[in-house]
């Protein structure tokens, strides 16, 4: 009100001359003018920077004090007293050739200003326009002379406290990832930074206006350790309790309020865990108020929640697999029987019922003969089972012999089934014979196949080196190597079989698109794993469609992710029509 005080003594009301819902040169009734004064203020951006809403209904003014005038809630009209004190030598910045209503009443009539003269009119008279006035907050500054040609305009306040709401950081399985989407169980770190570049203390209130709606629905505040919260003010680390309280306040309706001294900085960090399902969207947006002035909201950021689904498309191609088993004397009867049982379960997944008929399997026994099997269904699995069950433990650990036989079979399988991918699964309970040199065989196999290795009973470092390197999270980005001393051997073989058979795909906006060419005569098999327990759902094509496990989109099918819980891990097997 600097300019206003210079021109109009004692007046705390400001006349605004900018486009209105009801324009100033439009003649309306008094009630229409009153409606305009109550609604126009929200028609321009950032009105809270200038208007004091704590003075609601105090728009009557007699030159000395404010008073309530019925019907005026958020704004007023010029009043007669305000016009009179604006006159200097018969001239006034409020004098216009266009008539306008005041809010000064006399009996049942209302004063209107027309070319500097006041006239009493009936409130229903459509003869005057609108000149709103507002009670402004003390920080407000205006520019202009208050004339028709040079009207007053608000000067945007200086927000001298910088606010940084850094891009959220994502951790997946404990490792930081750069991603534009998140998955169930991911941890997001949000970081808010403030810096006072002004010359005086500033009271700041910060509030998350978008993320708040996702709390306990799509995300939950992580509170497992002291590392989940951090609050630093002026270089001093606050207590864990203070940091928690600050984070919870930011995520509340009232926000977190802090006083920042000139040159001082503040940093607040907190973690949330994703609990929402694929297809949901997490938004974050910060609103801050500096010394009572509400700044423009920060940029609204969005992240989709997606899910990685394992799927097995049984088609014209399959997998060529050689499984090499250690039958050395150190395996003994008990360990040998465990290995044989696990290998038979592996064979069941690869060439048993509901398997890909294009899969091929060879079994290499380290000290004995080896054999390959066509996938012709249950009869083939019986042959494999009988062959493996006949293995007994005796002899040494000749890696070179086993790898040489594996290489021969892989080359043969590759030649007969060139579209299939090639794999070697190699199990041993110990180090190779001291005279063994298998570098050539290893190098040749790795040119045409991926090698999975299992150190059974003993964790063997040479097996880790023998395995193919991987980027798969299951192997922590290392080699395809399992230490079966700490895991059930059957589960190890089962995991390898799934990795060989399956591909993975992440949903897009919660949707997993699959092929249009589903074989409608075959079942769909869906494995759902939740809290360590796996349930198998087998549906015919019609049942899967009718029960909305799959959705027909015309040009493609979609797996309906919303049929499952957010925490569920999903594996889908379906058959494709043969050309």
Plain-language structure description:
There is one protein chain. With 579 residues, this protein is of the alpha+beta class. The strands form ten sheets. Strands 11, 12, 13, 15, 17, 18, 19 and 21 form an eight-stranded antiparallel beta sheet that branches. A six-stranded mixed beta sheet has the order 29-28-27-30-31-32, sandwiched between helices. A five-stranded mixed beta sheet has the order 33-26-39-35-36. The longest helix has 20 residues, at 332-351. The N and C termini lie far apart (81 Å).
Briefly say what this structure is.
With 579 residues, the protein is an alpha+beta fold. It is built from 11 helices and 39 strands.
Note the topology.
Layout: H1 2-7, E1 13-15, H2 30-39, E2 60-61, E3 66-67, E4 76-77, H3 80-86, E5 100-106, E6 109-114, E7 117-122, E8 132-135, E9 141-143, E10 153-155, E11 161-165, E12 169-172, E13 175-177, E14 181-183, E15 187-196, E16 202-208, E17 219-221, E18 229-233, E19 236-237, H4 240-250, E20 256-260, E21 265-274, E22 281-284, E23 286-290, E24 293-294, E25 301-306, E26 308-314, E27 319-325, H5 332-351, E28 360-365, E29 370-373, H6 378-389, H7 399-416, E30 421-428, H8 439-448, E31 450-455, H9 461-466, E32 481-483, H10 489-501, E33 503-506, E34 512-514, E35 524-530, E36 533-539, H11 541-546, E37 550-552, E38 557-559, E39 569-575
């Amino acid at each position: 009100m600097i300019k206003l005080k210079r021109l109009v003594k004692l007046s705390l009301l400001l006349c605004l001359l900018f486009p209105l819902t009801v324009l100033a040169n439009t003649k309306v009734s008094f009630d229409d003018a009153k409606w305009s004064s109550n609604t126009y203020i929200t028609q321009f951006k950032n009105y809270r920077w200038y208007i004091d809403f704590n003075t609601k209904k105090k728009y009557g003014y007699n030159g000395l004090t404010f008073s309530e005038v019925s019907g005026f809630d958020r704004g007023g009209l010029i009043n007669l007293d305000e016009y009179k004190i604006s006159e200097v030598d018969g001239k006034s910045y409020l004098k216009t050739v266009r008539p306008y209503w005041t809010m000064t009443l006399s009996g049942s009539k209302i004063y209107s200003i027309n070319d500097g003269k006041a006239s009493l009119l009936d409130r229903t008279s459509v003869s005057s326009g609108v000149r709103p006035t507002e009670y402004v907050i003390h920080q407000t500054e205006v520019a202009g002379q208050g004339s028709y040609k040079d009207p007053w305009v608000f000067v945007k306040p200086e927000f001298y406290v910088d606010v940084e709401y850094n891009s959220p950081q994502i951790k997946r399985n404990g490792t930081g990832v750069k991603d534009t989407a998140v998955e169930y169980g991911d941890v997001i770190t949000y970081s808010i930074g403030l810096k006072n570049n002004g010359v005086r203390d500033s009271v700041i209130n910060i509030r998350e206006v978008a993320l708040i709606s996702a709390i306990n629905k799509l995300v939950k505040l992580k509170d497992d350790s002291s590392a989940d919260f951090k609050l630093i003010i002026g270089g001093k680390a606050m207590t864990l309790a203070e940091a928690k309280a600050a984070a919870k306040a930011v995520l509340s309706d009232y926000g977190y309020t802090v006083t920042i001294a000139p040159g001082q900085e503040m940093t607040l960090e907190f973690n949330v865990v994703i609990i929402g399902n694929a297809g949901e969207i997490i938004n974050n947006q910060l609103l801050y108020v500096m010394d009572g002035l509400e700044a423009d909201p920060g940029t609204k950021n969005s992240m989709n929640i997606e899910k990685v689904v394992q799927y097995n498309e049984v088609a014209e191609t399959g997998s060529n697999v050689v499984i090499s088993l250690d039958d050395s004397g150190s395996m003994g009867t008990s360990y040998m029987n465990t290995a044989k049982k696990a290998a038979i379960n592996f064979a069941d997944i690869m060439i048993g019922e509901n398997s890909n008929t294009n899969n091929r399997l060879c079994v290499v026994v380290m000290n004995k003969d080896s054999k390959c099997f066509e996938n012709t269904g249950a009869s083939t699995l019986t042959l494999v089972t009988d062959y493996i069950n006949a293995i007994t433990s005796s002899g040494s650990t000749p890696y070179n012999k086993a790898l040489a036989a594996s290489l021969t079979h892989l080359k043969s399988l590759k030649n007969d089934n060139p579209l299939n991918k090639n794999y070697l699964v190699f199990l041993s309970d110990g180090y190779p014979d001291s005279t063994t040199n298998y570098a050539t065989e290893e190098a040749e196999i790795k040119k045409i196949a991926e090698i999975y290795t299992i150190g059974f009973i003993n964790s063997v470092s040479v097996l880790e080196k023998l395995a193919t390197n991987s980027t798969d999270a299951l192997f922590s980005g290392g080699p395809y190597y399992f230490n079966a001393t700490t895991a059930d051997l059957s589960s190890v073989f089962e995991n390898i079989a799934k990795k060989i058979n399956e591909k993975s795909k992440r949903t897009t906006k919660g949707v997993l698109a699959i092929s249009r060419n589903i074989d409608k005569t075959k079942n769909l098999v869906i494995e759902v794993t939740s809290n360590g327990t796996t349930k198998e759902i087998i549906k015919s094509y019609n049942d899967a469609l009718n029960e909305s496990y799959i959705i027909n989109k015309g040009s493609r099918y979609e797996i309906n992710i919303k049929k499952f819980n957010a925490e569920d891990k999903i594996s889908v097997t379906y058959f494709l029509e043969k050309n």
